[in-house]
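During the reporting period, we have paired protein sequences with backbone structure tokens. One record among many follows, to show the layout:
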Amino acid sequence: MVNYPLALQITNGVAYGLWILMLIMSGYYIASFFISGKKVKPVPHSKKKTKFAVIVPARNESHVITNTFSSFVTQTYDRKYYDVWVIVESEDDPTCKICEDFGYNYFVRKDLHNKHTKGFAIQELHNYFTENNMEYDAYLIIDAGDILSAPYIEVMNDLRQTGVMVGLGYRNYTNAAQNWMTATSAVFFCYMMSFTARMRTNLFQKSTLAGTGLFVDTKIIKDAGGWIWTGMTEDTQLTAYCYYHDVKMRYYPLVEFFDEQASTLKASHKQKIRWIWGYFENRKFLKEPKDVDYHTLTKRKRKFAMFEYTVPIYPFAIFSVMNFLLFITSLFLTIFSTIQSPDHTAEFWSVTVSQFAILWGTYILIAALVIAKDNKHHLKLKFWRIVVTLLTYILFFVDIIFAFLDGLFHKEKRTTWDAIDHTGDITKEKE
């Protein structure tokens, strides 16, 4: 029989420990809220021009690629200073014909064995450029289906002319209002951009990269010995490389592009497996070559930047997982106590309800802060959608736990790169 008084003491002790952890870690997140709120100074317009290779990995994306190409047509940046290169895996892909109609280049991959990630696609195209003596100042990487605002490429040029070597704009969404999955995903990435990336830019001239909409100076690629970021999450690898070698980065929220979020639970779950296990991939090779250093920060500030980059995810992850496990444990103890020790049932119910309320309330608060900051000018969700998003935001992270477990018990899913279907539909709400 369970010793229910002792079990109650242990659960209460763990709960108090988690509350203390929440208070400690809240200092970091409160600081990020205020630091990220610093007013953004417009980047000066430059007459100097960057020669961009606009790279679009597009594996079977013919049904959405037209939206992307149409946004290229509206760019204010002089067309002679950028070439569009679309990466496909077969000559039979209808994307090739669409590229020809728009006058853009397409590159058909040849080395596909166990190399289906976006990073390997870019690596193969980069090798093609090198072999054919094709020189570009920077690569601008765009996912198929993304829509660039008209000044996007021009502003990326302006950023680069200030000495920024990796930069990106605000990641907005074409379908944030479609359902609870797209809305919660949009809020998650808005947090990463509006809080984390913006704080890192303000403090350390660094950023958090989120896969698309970013430019990379080709000097970085040459110094690294080629395009080496080929893992399941090449954006995480590139972010780590920039920290290790002190690359000047910038997140610039005054220009935006629009990305499509996964709208089904199956697709969203596959993405999360990729993100989580990609995050834990070996990064030691990213510290090479050791003689590459861009000296953006002082030695002391650089150590602080590395600490900030490495540590913050763990308190929140530990708090969420431990609180979730404590809730499940308390729930089972509550159920069993009703049968074996009814005198303690009320106390266990109190612990169970309080744990769930704290966990749920934490996610509601985070989502509310993001929406308060970004909804007016970017997300533009209607009231009823905001309410649903606040209440379901926790489910986005519950699925992260299941995605971790899925990858833990199915190792093949950690290295299998599956394309995420896009619809090309634009369901952005307007007030």
Notes: The mean pLDDT is 90.
